[in-house]
């Protein structure tokens, strides 16, 4: 039974099985089962990794789309900003009379800035400015 002893030593994890006659067989079986399980675990690990990689790539694509969208929005904003600045420059060139400005301020009870803006928008025409403000 020396060979049997060797088997028992190998499968000494399951101590209770040693006493049974087919214990050594069971131990061998268990080992075989464990060995068979290993590649399966490995495969699932690889599959998980693949899934994670896919997910990461998807996220990267999404974020780059977002960046593109943001830069498009940014471009549009800066274009609008430029157009606004151009308009402000044009408006600033318009000569307005101080008395017209004061008239609008008192008539409409609005701030100097608002009165000035409306007057400039109507190329200094106080009547048009007042008409627009009353509408």
TrEMBL record:
- Which Pfam families does the entry mention? UBA_HYPK
InterPro entries, A to Z: Huntingtin-int_K, HYPK_UBA, NAC-like_UBA
Region feature Disordered, mapped onto this chain: 1-86
Q: Where is the composition biased (Gly residues)?
A: 23-33
Task: Name all Nascent polypeptide-associated complex subunit alpha-like UBA domain ranges.
Answer: 94-134
Q: Which residues form a coiled coil?
A: none
- Record's superkingdom? Eukaryota
Q: Which GO terms describe its biological process?
A: negative regulation of apoptotic process; protein stabilization
Compositionally biased, Basic and acidic residues: which spans?
Answer: 35-61, 74-86
Q: Where is the signal peptide?
A: none
* CDD domains in UniProt: UBA_HYPK
| Protein name (record) | HYPK protein
Task: Please name the source species.
Answer: Herpetotheres cachinnans (Laughing falcon)
């Amino acid at each position: 039974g020396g060979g049997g002893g060797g088997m028992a030593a190998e499968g000494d994890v399951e101590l209770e099985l040693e006493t049974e006659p087919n214990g050594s067989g069971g131990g061998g079986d268990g080992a075989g089962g464990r060995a068979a399980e290993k590649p399966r675990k490995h495969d699932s690990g690889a599959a998980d990794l693949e899934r994670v990689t896919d997910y990461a790539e998807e996220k990267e694509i999404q974020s780059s789309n977002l960046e593109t969208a943001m830069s498009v929005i940014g471009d549009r904003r800066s274009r609008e900003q430029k157009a606004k600045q151009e308009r402000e420059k044009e408006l600033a060139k318009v000569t307005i009379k101080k008395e017209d400005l004061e008239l609008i301020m008192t008539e409409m009870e609005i701030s100097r800035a608002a009165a000035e803006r409306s007057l400039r928008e109507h190329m200094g025409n106080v009547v048009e400015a007042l008409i627009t403000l009353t509408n």
